[in-house]
Amino acid sequence: MERIVLLVLIFLPAVAVAQQARDLPDSVQKGIREGKYQWQAIDQSAQFPGGVPAFYQYVSENMKYPKSAKKKGLRGRVYVQFVINKDGNIDAGSVRVMPAQEIREASASMPMDIIQDPDCEKEAMRLIRESPSWQPAQYRGQPVMQQMAVPILFNRK
Q: Which residues make Cβ contacts (< 8 Å) with residue 125, sequence separation at least 6?
């Protein structure tokens, strides 16, 4: 049986968020129902190679800022949720944009400059899907799956 850690980690600020199974992507909910995934603790969270600064450097260097967003002058964040597999690769089927209401419910202390724009959301999900492999989460020295969420900043002037 595969194990998945259903912990949402938001970078900058780092806030752990409890999540109910009904809020998870359909593919993950199906995996839970079928016994493919289970809730578990972790000893070490998954990490982008080089850490948070390297992740945001990757985003900055690879973002294709949507022309429509430039034209509209959109600035803010799109929060993307995804699963990192035991091998460190992103589970492409798990990548989704977190709705603004879900983010607000998760933490009142998080910045609320949330962009709800289809082109920005599509670009944020592309960046995650095409992300290099991560260092997987660890439990008792063994790699495990983990669900993460990160904000992708759209801040062109």
A: 80, 95, 96, 97
